[in-house]
User: Which sequence fits this backbone?
């Protein structure tokens, strides 16, 4: 799957992933109104609003981007109907030939990690039949439990040709409470980056590993160091746009081949119609606003990479 991701990035010339993280206050009133008229102000109504919102954004951006990243928590909060909306979103994006990165941040003891891996990127057997329950192409993984918690995911990656993005240095302000701690003379995130490179060496595609890393755009100098530590690992870079990251901050996340990173923007794209520069589209054309935001992001990153050459 990493090879397909690379090919799609090269085809679109857009190392961009759209984060499908729909909060209800991002969803225009007319979408909510239609959903509530059909299902009432219920969990089912909220899930329908989310699904219709996602569908329109995907329809307006799918030709510009290689991948999407639905954050499962935004769906789980609405219970089983929310998870059904998550599944519909994953299935629809795959029909549009988009790479789907399930932002699930799983990680537990071995047997539990094996179950998470089977459910999201692997298969489960029911009687004589095998199923791919959620069917994402990549998922995010928390490495806090060490190799025991990561190996079951890596095993599924090798078997299914799927991928992982392992949390190394996250974009949130308090990440340094643990991740920046000095252990044997080096910050913890460097030690985690080394393990990601080791795990990934056994799961190689043509040029990059199936096992990548999450490194926040809000820490560009740390990204520069981690790029050297993990030369064959693709880096998923959150924190662009709404969290403060800009194209100029991102150049060190990429390798000299112009590859090696994919940058996520969530509310900066899906709620673009709420921003001043896209207000002209209005809530009735929120999908068009999202498309314009993707085009602006693509230009920003492209200009930064060209300037760095």
Assistant:
């Amino acid at each position: 799957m990493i090879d397909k991701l690379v090919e799609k990035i090269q085809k679109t010339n857009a190392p961009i992933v759209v984060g499908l993280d729909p909060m209800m206050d991002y969803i225009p009133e007319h979408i909510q109104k239609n959903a509530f008229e059909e299902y009432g102000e219920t969990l089912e109504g909220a899930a329908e609003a989310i699904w219709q919102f996602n569908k329109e954004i995907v329809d307006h951006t799918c030709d510009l981007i290689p991948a999407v990243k639905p954050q499962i928590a935004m769906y789980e909060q609405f219970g089983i109907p929310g998870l059904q909306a998550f599944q519909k979103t994953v299935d629809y994006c795959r029909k549009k030939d988009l790479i789907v990165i399930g932002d699930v941040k799983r990680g537990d003891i071995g047997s539990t990690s094996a179950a998470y891996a089977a459910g999201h990127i692997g298969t489960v057997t029911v009687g004589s039949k095998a199923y791919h329950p959620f069917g994402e192409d990549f998922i995010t993984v928390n490495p806090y439990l060490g190799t025991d918690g990561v190996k079951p995911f890596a095993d599924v990656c090798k078997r299914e040709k799927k991928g992982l993005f392992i949390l190394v240095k996250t974009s949130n302000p308090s990440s340094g409470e643990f991740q920046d701690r000095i252990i044997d003379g080096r910050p913890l995130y460097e030690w985690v980056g080394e393990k990601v490179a080791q795990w990934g060496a056994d799961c190689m595609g043509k040029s990059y590993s199936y096992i990548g890393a999450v490194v926040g755009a809000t820490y560009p100098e740390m990204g520069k160091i981690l790029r050297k530590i993990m030369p064959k690992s693709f880096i998923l870079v959150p924190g662009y746009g709404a969290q403060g990251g800009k194209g100029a901050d991102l150049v060190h996340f990429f390798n000299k081949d112009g590859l090696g990173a994919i940058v996520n923007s969530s509310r900066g794209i899906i709620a673009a119609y709420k921003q001043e520069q896209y207000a002209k589209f209005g809530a009735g054309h929120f999908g068009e606003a999202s498309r314009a935001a993707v085009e602006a992001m693509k230009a920003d990153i492209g200009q930064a990479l060209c300037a760095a050459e």
